[in-house]
Structure formats: structure tokens, C-alpha cells
Amino acid sequence: TPEQAARMKKLQEQEKRQKVEFRKRMEQEVSQFIQATGEPRRRFQPMNKIERSILHDVAEVAGLTSFSFGDDEDSRYVMVFKKEFAPSDEELEAYRRGEEWDPARAEERRRLRELAAQQEEAELECGPAPPGPPNDYKDKYRHLIGSDAAKAAARTMEANKAYGCVPVANKRDTRSIEEAMNEIRAKKRLRQAEDE
């Protein structure tokens, strides 16, 4: 009906006006944020998907970095960062987990990781621990196999060095695949002719 259409049009115009007003408000907030010297990042209130997309767009136009955080749609919010204070991966991970970013704690974690890596390196330099069980299985079964049988068995287990290798004679074959296939077909025809 014409009344419904008019009502719909009025609603759409109202939504459009609200979006324009919201964008203006966000542009003002973002420009205030840019002028604020002691503020490297700003967290905005939770907002819906459309409002977040408008804010991301405003931030991008202003040359800022922006990210959305929060699990459910009602609590998702946008954080805007000045380019020179762009967040590290660790900082982003903290926000994704819903934690506050604490540079001092992150530095402490990084130091602990470095320390662990240095200890690991030191252990590697000392030489690896001997692999395998602490006792030798051959001792356990010596009464069955004797002391020489195991050594003899170990000697006979040598790798077949030719396994998977192409013989040198085959490597000298410089024919194309088509030439080789034609030769095979010719031999096959010859054999068939002899059989007949």
C-alpha cells in the first residue's frame, strides 16, 4: 500500500540521516584523538556492525589503524591506534583474549622466553642426552641371544644403497618420451607380426 511505502521511505531516510550524523560524530572524535598528544590508542564504546564499519572507514581515511574486539555482537568494540603506536601481535592477542595490554608484563614474558631459549641452547651445546632407554635390551635377552648374535645382526642390517636409484645406462637415454613410445610400439608390432 502507498502508506507502507511512504513509511518505509521515511524510515530509510531517517536511518540515512542517523548514519550521516554518526559519521560526523566519529570524525570529530577521531580528529580530537589525533590532536591529543598523550593518547596512543583510543577504545570506543561497543557498537553495532554498521557503526563499527563507519568508524573503521573514518579511521582509515584519517590514516589510523583500527581493530574490532569482543566475542559477541553486543559487546564488540573498536580500538583506534595512531600509526606510530600500531599494536604488536602480542598486544592484539591480549585484546582478543579480553585482557588489558600491559607493556611491562609483555616485556617480562619476552625476557622469560629469551631466558628459556638460552637455556635450551645451552643444553643443546652440552650435547644431546643419549637416545633410547636407560638400559640395553640386549642385556635383558643376553641369555637367549648370546653376546655376539646382536652384533652380527646389527652388521647385516645395511641399507640397500641402490634402492630408488636409476641405473647409469638409463640416464644416457636422451630420447624424448614420444620417441621412446614409438620405439616400444614398433617392437610390439614386430612381435605381433612374428606371432601371426
UniProtKB/TrEMBL annotation:
**Where in this chain does the record put each R3H domain?**
20-83
Mind telling me which Pfam families this protein's record contains?
A: R3H
At the top level, the lineage of the source is Eukaryota
Annotated GO molecular function terms are:
nucleic acid binding
Region: Disordered; residue ranges are: 117-139
Official protein name in the record: SPAG7 protein
